[in-house]
């Protein structure tokens, strides 16, 4: 146990938690407006690919982060069009988008790098600027939701959209803006994954971190500070399983691989009983009487 929780393990926990935390913060913004974005994993994949290709082309990981942010915003615009404007089923749309993103990013990546050909590594950022970005995003999301009138309107769109509409606010515009903003953060999270210490893009590089971020939003009861705390818990479990895989044991390594996800699910089960789900989450808003 003394060799498990070392400074190296804690540093690895922070590194592994960074993309999950940023993605979860983006989803908090989106879901507080009443939109359930199950396309988070796919958006992270597009952000990761955009960040990798931009960094490879320019040599600057900061440009890569900007590319990931832009790719995420583009994904958010498409999802907002489908889920808010067209009012397609949010669960089906999000799942379909994630499946599409997995295939599309693999195809685009293999246009340049065939199977078996190792892709080149890119210039990467150290953990310090990445941690600063997480803290800045956390403070910005917290301030938006708790200290601004825009945050109150955003929360009203998720809790009582009819009341917000009666006060003159365009619920569809608020939800679309929240979807684009939240997806932009998800794209940034994907770019931070590859432009950070990893410095590499591989197929399905997010490895389910988008789904973990979705679960952590429920675990956090849609509060940004708790979402980051949940991401740190996931990162710690992920770092621990990496350390445990290197120890002599008869336990199959697949058990260690599942450890962080099992802990996340258990935490979600405990917190979900006291969940404060936005009342209109995943419910399309139609102005006027229903026809």
UniProtKB/TrEMBL annotation:
InterPro entries: ABC_transp_permease. It is a multi-pass membrane protein. It is found in: Cell membrane. The chain crosses the membrane at residues 36-55, 62-85, 91-113, 125-145, 176-194, 250-270. The keyword Acyltransferase does not apply. Keywords: Cell membrane, Membrane, Transmembrane, Transmembrane helix. It holds the Pfam family BPD_transp_2. It comes from the Bacteria. PANTHER family: ABC TRANSPORTER PERMEASE PROTEIN, SUGAR ABC TRANSPORTER INTEGRAL MEMBRANE PROTEIN-RELATED. This is ABC transporter permease. It comes from Pseudonocardia aurantiaca.
């Amino acid at each position: 146990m003394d060799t498990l929780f070392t400074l190296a393990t804690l540093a690895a926990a922070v590194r592994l938690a960074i993309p999950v935390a940023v993605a979860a913060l983006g989803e908090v913004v989106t879901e507080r407006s009443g939109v359930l974005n199950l396309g988070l994993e796919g958006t992270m994949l597009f952000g990761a690919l955009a960040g990798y290709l931009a960094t490879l082309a320019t040599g600057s990981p900061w440009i890569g982060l900007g590319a990931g942010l832009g790719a995420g915003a583009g994904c958010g615009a498409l999802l907002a069009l489908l889920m808010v404007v067209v009012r397609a089923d949010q669960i089906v749309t999000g799942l379909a988008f994630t499946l599409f993103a997995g295939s599309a990013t693999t195809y685009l990546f293999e246009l340049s790098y065939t199977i078996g050909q190792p892709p080149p590594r890119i210039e990467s950022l150290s953990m310090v600027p990445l941690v600063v970005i997480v803290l800045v995003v956390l403070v910005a999301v917290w301030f938006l939701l708790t200290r601004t009138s825009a945050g109150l309107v955003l929360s009203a769109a998720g809790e009582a959209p009819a009341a917000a509409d009666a006060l003159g606010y365009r619920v569809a515009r608020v939800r679309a803006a929240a979807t684009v903003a939240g997806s932009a953060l998800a794209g940034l999270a994907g770019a931070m994954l590859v432009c950070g210490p990893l410095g590499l893009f591989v197929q399905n590089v997010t490895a389910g971190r988008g789904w973990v971020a979705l679960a952590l939003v429920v675990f956090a009861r849609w509060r940004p500070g708790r979402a980051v705390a949940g991401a740190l818990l996931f990162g710690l479990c992920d770092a621990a399983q990496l350390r445990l895989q290197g120890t002599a044991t008869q336990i199959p390594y697949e058990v260690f691989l599942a450890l962080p996800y099992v802990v996340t699910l258990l935490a979600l089960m405990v917190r979900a009983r006291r969940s404060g789900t936005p009342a209109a989450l995943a419910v399309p808003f139609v102005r006027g009487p229903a026809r």
